[in-house]
Design brief:
Aspartate Aminotransferase, domain 2; 12 helices; alpha/beta; 3-stranded antiparallel β-sheet; binds pyridoxal-5'-phosphate; Aspartate Aminotransferase, domain 1; 2 domains; 39% helix; 365 residues
Length: 365
């Protein structure tokens, strides 16, 4: 049996006619940047999340930078986040001019450890970026409490967590600003790059709209320094089609995740802990295992695609060794033991059974 890590074409086949109709609509209209599709998608995505404002941008990375800039966070400020994340989280912070301060993750949930955040706060700290890693909501109650106590902004990096919930509320809407990526492999992914920043604050939303397009309030008149970070009409039109399927696809991911958990009971495999009242969306199904490299090679021999997200924590990568950081011992342990297994809505249940059988065989020796 061959089980690819991911198969985006399988998903395309299920929505092909709607995607083609959406593309036709855009090409016939002849408007390609910040037009009616982006406007409609912003409204639909905001309604889906239950948040007043959504601003389309060119990527999740840009979204993080613009979110910080819109909140007035920049040079001289410190922003606390994790090292166990996509490097983009840290890139987004650095590009705002603020200094990332890296803290450890919780050993059970593998998301930002609130106690570590509390210990890292200084008088220069202005914000915390909480990453809902692999689609698993971080401990927002504890983080909101710390934020309130110290007057910090809480930004949610929800780039891997479209549709996940925490206390029945969609993630991205719990902090001051939420940031999403529409990179093609995401639970809600386009056919190219794209991103969205959401907020309940009208002033922040207004600043975001200006910042993404040269600081314009009115066309050709820059009121402040801005950039070019716009969502395009083709992506927005396709993402509107996909948004209508997101809940159904996330439910399927949860079913497959449950199946993995059940099939791998009584093995050395550990799963990511989920907080009570959190509903993850399994952007990735990551296990923690002994002899990770051995298992990955064994699965490859049996036709199973796997990946490691991520093989090095951010502070271990050449470009980021200089970053300010606290104790990262849980992070450094985790990166040696994690393995991402195939999970996507079109993956047949029999494939999960096969992957689980192979993992069991590996540990039986
Ligand atoms: C946790 C996290 N943050 C930020 C990003 C950045 O998103 P993008 O690739 O759209 O810039 C990604 C995705 O790559 C991500 O997984």
């Amino acid at each position: 049996m061959h089980v690819p890590f991911l198969d985006l074409t399988a998903q395309y086949r299920t929505i092909e006619s709607e995607i083609r109709a959406a593309l036709d609509r855009v090409f016939e209209r002849g408007r390609f940047i910040l037009g009616p599709e982006v406007e409609a998608f912003e409204a639909e995505f905001a309604a889906y999340l239950g948040v007043p404002y959504a601003v389309g941008v060119a990527s999740g990375t840009d979204g993080l930078t613009l979110a910080l800039q819109a909140l007035g966070v920049g040079p001289g400020d410190e922003v606390i986040t994790v090292s166990h994340t996509a490097v983009a989280t840290v890139v987004g912070i650095e590009r705002s001019g603020a200094r990332p301060v890296l803290v450890d993750v919780d050993p059970a949930t593998w998301t930002i450890d609130p106690a570590a955040v509390r210990a890292a706060v200084t008088d220069r700290t202005r914000a915390v970026v909480a990453v809902h890693l692999y689609g698993n909501p971080a401990d927002m109650d504890a983080l909101l409490e710390i934020g309130q106590a110290h007057g910090l902004y809480l930004i949610e990096d929800a780039c891997q967590a479209h549709g996940a919930r925490y206390r029945r509320q969609r993630v991205g809407t719990l902090g001051h600003v939420g940031v999403f990526s529409f990179y093609p492999t995401k639970n809600l992914g386009g056919y190219g790059d794209g991103g969205m920043v959401v907020t309940a604050d009208p002033t922040v939303a207004e600043r975001l709209r200006r910042l993404r397009e040269y600081g314009w309030r009115q066309r050709f008149i820059s009121e402040q320094a801005g950039t070019n970070s716009r969502l395009d009409e083709i992506q927005a039109a396709c993402l509107r089609v996909k948004l209508s399927r997101l809940d159904e696809w996330n439910e399927r991911r949860r079913t497959l995740a449950r199946l993995y958990r059940e099939s791998l009971r009584d093995t050395p495999v550990q799963f990511q802990g989920v907080l009570p009242d959190a509903e993850p969306v399994y952007h990735l199904l990551v296990i923690r295992v002994p002899d990770r490299d051995g298992l990955q090679a064994f699965l490859a021999e049996h036709g199973i695609g796997t990946m490691v997200h991520y093989p090095q924590a951010v502070h271990q990568q050449p470009a980021y060794r200089h970053l300010s950081r606290r104790d990262l011992s849980v992070t450094e342990q985790i990166v040696q033991e994690i393995l991402s297994l195939p999970i996507y809505p079109e993956l047949p249940e029999a494939a999960v059974g096969y992957v689980a059988d192979c993992i069991r065989a590996f540990y039986r020796g």
